[in-house]
Amino acid sequence: MPLTTAFVATLAIFGTAILTNADAPAGAPPLSLFPSPWGQGGDYGWDAAYAQARAFVSNLTLVEKVNLTTGTGWEFDRCIGNTGSVPRLGFRSLCLQDGTVAVRYTDKNSVFPAGINMAATFSRSLMRRRGEAMGAEFRGKGIDIALGPVAGPLGRVPAGGRNWEGFSPDPYLTGVGMFETVTGMQSQGVMATAKHYILNEQEHYRNNVDVTIDDRTMHELYLWPFADAVRAGVGSVMCSYNKINGNYSCENSWTLNYLLKNELNFQGFVMSDWGAQHSTVESALGGLDMAMPGDGGPRGSIYGAYWGGALTESVLNGTIPAWRVDDMAARIMASYYKVAAISGNKPRPDINFSAWVPPNVTVGPVYYRANASIEEVNLHVDVQADHGALIREIAAKSTVLLKNKQDKTLPLRKPARIAIVGDDAQDAPGGPNACVDNKCYKGTLATGYGSGPGNFPYLVAPATALKKRAAADNATVVEAPNNWDLDAAQKAAEGADVALVFASADAGEGYITIDGNTGDRNNLTLWGNGDALIKAVASVNNNTVVVLHTVGPVILDYAAAHENITAILWAGLPGQESGNAITDVLYGDVAPQGRSPFMWGANISDYGAEIMYTSPTPQAPSQNFTEGIYIDYRYFQHAHTKAVYPFGHGLTYTRFDFENLTVHPFHGEGAATAAAPSKTTTRPAQTYGVVNSSIEANEAPAAFKGIKPFVYPWLLHTNSSLPKWLNSSTTGDNRDPRTNGSAQAVLPAGGAPGGNPGLYDTVYAIGFDIRNRGTVNGTAVPQLYVQLGGHDNPWGVLRGFDDVAVAAGERVHVEMNLTRRDISNWDTEKQNWVITDLQKYVFIGRSVVDIALNSSLPALKL
Ligand SMILES: *[C@@H]1O[C@H](CO)[C@@H](O)[C@H](O)[C@H]1NC(C)=O
Ligand SMILES: *[C@@H]1O[C@H](CO)[C@@H](O)[C@H](O)[C@H]1NC(C)=O
Ligand SMILES: *[C@@H]1O[C@H](CO)[C@@H](O)[C@H](O)[C@H]1NC(C)=O
Ligand SMILES: *[C@@H]1O[C@H](CO)[C@@H](O)[C@H](O)[C@H]1NC(C)=O
Ligand SMILES: *[C@@H]1O[C@H](CO)[C@@H](O)[C@H](O)[C@H]1NC(C)=O
Ligand SMILES: *[C@@H]1O[C@H](CO)[C@@H](O)[C@H](O)[C@H]1NC(C)=O
Ligand SMILES: *[C@@H]1O[C@H](CO)[C@@H](O)[C@H](O)[C@H]1NC(C)=O
Ligand SMILES: *[C@@H]1O[C@H](CO)[C@@H](O)[C@H](O)[C@H]1NC(C)=O
Ligand SMILES: *[C@@H]1O[C@H](CO)[C@@H](O)[C@H](O)[C@H]1NC(C)=O
Ligand SMILES: *[C@@H]1O[C@H](CO)[C@@H](O)[C@H](O)[C@H]1NC(C)=O
Ligand SMILES: CC(=O)N[C@H]1CO[C@H](CO)[C@@H](O)[C@@H]1O
């Protein structure tokens, strides 16, 4: 896709270097951008934050600034990652901590439902409330930066190991999840991290796979939810392990400089995934701001790090301009001040745990690897508050009722004899924390494995909660926990009024292999003999109810068609209240309102894209996302494949009608593209404070006694001859486009956090009514799909949803807005979002295939 001359000319006016990426593979977007855009402030609180950050950073020496950018090393300090500190000003190190469903590696924390469950709620308010609760737990432990939420993987491939940590393969739904989670977390004074940026879609080869992607797919699919995170004011973005179009993500001038910092106007900082940094100079110029966990570095490096002292040296030898390091520090501190202001500048709690001692231990080393400073490192601060109730509510409401034969199997009506079948209903031997990082597959599955989960305070197994409930009805319960003993399962199920069969499928991060599954799943069938178990029970009991705890879709065609399988529920990864939540749903105390956030195919090939499990070139594996925008339901539509259960599908205990669709264009907002950003250039790069380039100012003070393996910011030059670079300029070479700090052009699609603010203008208001035709209250989840027109767009794309409580027999009016972004396509040549003149349509549905209302969209006055 060559750049148009007009586009190049526009940008050339401002002296910004849009370089053709000579190394990019054929067909890759040729865009990269240097220098790395500097943070400037802006709306949504960034101006005030930058004012504070500049004042703080202006007071720092070069080595103090470098200290903020570089982690002290893996397992050297108390958190999963710690930056250096500024002792002179009493500024303690920043504490960074996993995970995505819990505060990892501590105790007295909660374990929340996974991101994929949040997507299944289709509820902005529940997403927000989980974000707030999680934010409060991280903050309560003294953590500054929580390492979540996840929009990458987005879910290109259904077997992707970490899809459950994210939300949904639909970018709009994931974008809402990101926006609400970031907003919720940051309201508690903790910086959120949008990760893994970007195209980290599988665990196999994640460290070096080179992903080829086209510019349109990047914008319309993978970048979309990150734009929402940036618009929500996310403090940090974590670059991923993989390469994109030839360059590592953490030094990729297209994804970091061009897309994130210019087009999306990201004002926070970019941190590396743990070990995802591969260079000193290229990463700094390519847009990285914080190196995590800090140690590592090139073989034989005297610094033991790519940054730390090496970054200091690179500034002093004129390779990296001082303003770039000032910008790194300012971005980090601006995020810090911004989030502090949101939460009312409450005092910053001390770090009161250690990730590296077992959770039940109190006294241990502050510096774990050095085994130094033995003291009370874990104060066991209880941060759970009343989050258990929220977790139970979300877990119940995210449960998707896929099948309910004749609408009458569920809710249960006091069955007298109940069979509970399957290991997935039971407690794991040794308890829920028997295996660190959840790396055993035993007992009920309430979360996946890897760095996302944390220790459970408790885990209510389904059998425990169901037996309690059954006892209240004087019902008899028979259990068959062994998945491989089909005779026992059948014996338990025979004659039961209802046979509840629990089954699961796990996945996680690629550093763990369970049953041959290295992060990514090897298949889409159930684990642990689950399918055979379900079939065995269904062959002897004509009221078999299947409950699934899975990380994503499994092949269910046989169960959907089976006459004796009267109900199927997908409960996802519900967290610590699993058993209570599923009991609430089964007995009708909570009406299920979950909707499937992905397609349920009959075959793995129905999804179009699959995991690349092996590569002919394992040292340099590559992958081409040739399916483009066609993933999940977009691909099924494209290939005319019928799903077993579609995206958006989910039953409840009543029926809803949708009526009276109205579509109102908003006049006065009718330009095909948003107006140019109000500022079309930035100011020149700024330095904050002065660099003292003497050796003494940049070496550790003679009296300084360091912790042995720590990464420090100081020069390590024992050589007596003064290197000549100490006299050279530290302002950067204006002839080198990578270090030229002149004013920079703002891209036409940019201008404010999340992109051009005009993208978020409402262009249509859509109204309709929902009627509850049943006899019980329920929550409808109307979904708005848009057809953007022509042959190159999916049949429909999700562009609105709501969770609407409607009482039995009542009617509720719903309004949804469509923004300019919602009806635009990415125009590669114009490098902008454009509303095409193709006829567009809007659909209101119960799922992506169950459409109740439709209308053409009247043309906007363009
Ligand atoms: C990737 O696939 C696209 C579409 O098939 C093709 O145009 C391009 O040349 C491919 N790139 C590489 C590096 O294989
Ligand atoms: C700068 O540092 C000095 C101590 O060296 C301190 O008194 C002053 O408050 C600091 N200023 C800012 C803006 O942090
Ligand atoms: C950098 O951080 C380390 C670790 O917190 C600290 O010991 C050291 O004094 C800091 N260096 C400077 C120059 O402030
Ligand atoms: C400057 O120092 C950095 C870090 O040691 C090194 O990678 C780079 O090659 C040096 N550049 C020059 C021009 O000396
Ligand atoms: C901590 O837990 C481990 C594993 O359950 C146990 O072996 C150990 O005795 C406990 N230690 C303390 C101090 O309670
Ligand atoms: C259960 O049985 C007890 C004792 O037989 C009886 O008192 C109680 O009413 C029964 N409860 C229900 C819900 O049937
Ligand atoms: C799929 O993988 C799971 C987990 O490893 C395994 O239990 C199951 O047997 C596999 N299914 C097939 C059809 O091989
Ligand atoms: C359904 O269950 C009944 C027992 O209630 C059994 O006789 C029948 O064969 C089952 N049907 C199928 C298709 O397995
Ligand atoms: C199951 O079979 C029994 C006995 O034939 C019948 O009474 C009952 O209605 C059936 N249940 C369902 C859910 O079909
Ligand atoms: C149904 O909703 C209505 C209106 O919100 C409420 O008054 C009523 O109590 C609800 N009924 C039940 C059974 O929850
Ligand atoms: C206000 C209005 O137009 N109401 C209509 C909504 O749709 C139902 C069913 O089609 C009609 O009966 C109402 O008159």
UniProtKB/TrEMBL annotation:
Q: Which Pfam families match?
A: Fn3-like, Glyco_hydro_3, Glyco_hydro_3_C
Q: Which Gene3D superfamilies match?
A: Glycoside hydrolase family 3 C-terminal domain (3.40.50.1700), Glycoside hydrolase, family 3, N-terminal domain (3.20.20.300), Immunoglobulins (2.60.40.10)
Provide the residue span(s) of the region labelled Disordered.
Answer: 727-750
- Which reactions does this protein catalyse? Hydrolysis of terminal, non-reducing beta-D-glucosyl residues with release of beta-D-glucose
- Domain Fibronectin type III-like, first and last residues per copy: 780-848
Pathway listed: Glycan metabolism; cellulose degradation
MF-aspect GO terms: beta-glucosidase activity
Q: Which InterPro entries match?
A: Cellulose_deg_GH3, Fn3-like, GH, Glyco_hydro_3_AS, Glyco_hydro_3_C, Glyco_hydro_3_C_sf, Glyco_hydro_3_N, Glyco_hydro_3_N_sf
Tell me which positions the record assigns to the signal sequence.
1-22
* SMART domains from the UniProt entry: Fn3_like
What EC number(s) would the UniProt record show? 3.2.1.21
> Any idea which UniProt keywords this protein has?
Carbohydrate metabolism, Glycoprotein, Glycosidase, Hydrolase, Polysaccharide degradation, Signal
Give the UniProt family note.
Belongs to the glycosyl hydrolase 3 family.
Q: What is this protein called?
A: beta-glucosidase
Q: Which gene encodes it?
A: BGL4_1
